[in-house]
Amino acid sequence: MALYAIGDIQGCYDDLQRLLEQIRFDPAKDRLWFAGDLVNRGPDSLRVLRFVKGLGARADSVLGNHDLHLLALSEGNLRHRGKDHTLDPILNAPDRDELLHWLRHRPLLKRSRKRNITLIHAGLPPQWDLQTAVACARELETALRGDTFHDYCRQMYGNEPRQWSPRLNGMPRLRFITNCLTRLRYCDRQGRLAMREKGAPGSRNHGILPWFRVPGRKTRNDPIVFGHWSTLGYLQEGRVHAIDTGCLWGGRLTALKVPKKRPPRPIQIDCPGSCTPGE
Q1: Which helix H or strand E contains 8, and what residues bound it?
Q2: Which helix (H) or strand (E) holds 76?
Q3: What positions does the domain Calcineurin-like phosphoesterase occupy (predicted)?
Q4: pTM across the whole model
Q5: Is-contact 160 196, C-beta < 8 A?
Q6: Contact (CB, 8 A) for 140 and 108
């Protein structure tokens, strides 16, 4: 069985199909792990969502910020309603409820002990070891799947709190976990989240670092695969692999083949792009 981790799709269904042809995906024996952001901005979010859901146990996806945005819209939180009209076909689809139910039951973190790999959408704060990251992801999954789902969707947006503490509770705790796993790119040297920073390393303010370069990060010895950061491009640095290579923006779509014993290997296709950067 081959396992492939695939970068952010964001509604680019045709590009996904070309990538699956490139890797010769065999649903009888291969498995796909998607790095989140299945939807939004691209031309066919509804088709992507139906396709990945239809793969059943052969595929899974961690949740990304755009996936959570769709869930928030579905629960009436229009705070950040903007250029997301590409989500309307999902919200108006006859199988809307079935698709959204499936989406809200996706994990925030996937881990394969056999292949010694962990998949998230965005980042981890330096204070978390892998055990804490797994526990925090499960906390958020419980909130999404339970009776607190509506309240969570109405309150999830915001950049505070910036600093992790085990004493955080309630919505501040869930918001911090959300921001790390689905939005994080940069931290300062003290490990505080710098949520407003988005560009490539070297283009930002002094005093902040990519989350995976913060000194003393407790997961520095754990192999981690993540998406979310298209301006970073494909990156293998230490034990982290960044696989959002900007398919939506005319970059590439990346599948990372994760063998049991050998190092992961990227396979990429060029994409025509569906949006201009900044849209």
Answers
A1: none
A2: none
A3: 3-130
A4: 0.95
A5: no
A6: yes
**Cβ-contact 45, 38 below 8 angstroms:** yes
Closest of 211, 267, 277, 202 to residue 234, by C-alpha: 267
Question: How far apart are the C-alpha atoms of 157 and 231, rounded to whole Å?
Answer: 23
Domain CATH code at residue 117: 3.60.21.10
Could you tell me which of 138, 146, 164 has the C-alpha nearest to residue 63? 138
pLDDT at 278 over 60: no
As a dihedral over the C-alpha atoms of residue 153, residue 224, residue 102, residue 67, rounded to 10 degrees, the angle is 40
Cis amide linkage into residue 264, ω under 30° from 0? no
Contact, 49 vs 79, CB < 8 A? no
> Starting from the edge strand earliest in sequence, which strands make up the sheet with 252-257, in order?
59-61, 31-34, 3-6, 252-257, 265-270
Within a domain: residue 278? no
Residues pairing with 240 in the sheet: 224, 237
pLDDT at residue 80 above 80? no
Centre a 10 Å sphere on the Cβ of residue 29 and count the other Cβ atoms it contains. Answer: 9
Which residue matches tokens 């981790």? 5
Note the pLDDT tens digit of each residue in 34-74. 999 999 999 999 999 999 999 999 999 999 999 999 999 99
Which residue matches tokens 């950061």? 229
Residue with tokens 């040297």: 189
- Longest Cα–Cα distance of the chain, Å, equals 49
The gap from C-alpha 36 to its chain's centroid, in whole angstroms, comes to 3
Residue 262 lies in a domain: yes
